[in-house]
Known about the structure:
Blueprint: H1 3-13, H2 27-63, H3 69-97, E1 107-111, H4 112-126, E2 131-135, E3 140-144, H5 145-161, E4 168-176, E5 179-186, H6 209-212, H7 220-231, E6 234-240, E7 244-250, E8 259-260
Parallel strand pairs: 2-4
Antiparallel strand pairs: 1-3, 3-8, 4-5, 5-7, 6-7
Helix pairs in contact: 2-3, 4-5, 5-7
The structure holds adenosine-5'-diphosphate.
Amino acid sequence: FDDRTLHLIFNFTRTPRGVFIMWRDQTETVRFEERRNAFIAELSHDFRTPLTAIHGYTELLMNNHDGNEKTSKMLRHVKEEAERLDRLVDNFLDYQKIDYSAEQLTVTTFPLLPLLKDITESYQAMSPNHEVTYAAPPIHIQADEEKLKQMLHNLIGNAIKYSPEGGTVHTQVEDQAGIVTLSVSDTGIGIPADALPYVFDEYYRVDSKAHHTIKGTGLGLRICKRIAEAHGWGIHADSVYEEGTTFTIELHARHASSYVRTPPYAKR
Ligand code: ADP
């Protein structure tokens, strides 16, 4: 018992009649945690080693084959799928061990446009049957660039994954009177209103036939939320079922200087 509880018991009974002592052996719990962490570290290594080899050999083959267009296309597919697996491993294994607290962020100031351009172009190349676009003013922002990239990969990746071919995925950055928002919208299968409050929960997946036919871990949005919170940003989802979804990050909050307008800006 803590002091307050003891105080309450004594005051309630007036005269102390005895003391309860609760004792729980934590050894097994601690051992389990240690075993779990060691297992995750090992698994992470076991996944990454073959992936590095796949990346290396694919690059080598891409640069040294006979120039046949069909071979190039197949190698590009191998590369893209390996990159997808990279992200799955990142999401699943890093989630277990990465500390997403504010103290662990590596914050620098960088321009947003080149980052959006790179990500959008790579998704457009990987998903030629979707239209992947972006629009943003030329602002610089203060953030952990790698973590922001991970958020964008999760959001744009989802937008494509949950949209049928022919769909549009648009990333829009807006600066309205100093409040900067970044939103990723799609014209996909949408999220039913009763499921919307839970999409940022750990391992949550929307329970509908359309969602179940698409593979996922239910971790991507949880990771986005944790990264947003570490930065002091807000994140929320709006959706119309069977019409489309928009995820919005509010890049304001903690520091008034969360973004700066005038490039060039020295790195911190
Ligand atoms: P997953 O790996 O399952 O996609 P996420 O955490 O990224 O995990 O998303 C959680 C759930 O929210 C998904 O399983 C899906 O049901 C739903 N969801 C996420 N993004 C979208 C989207 N753009 N359109 C429709 N549903 C989505």
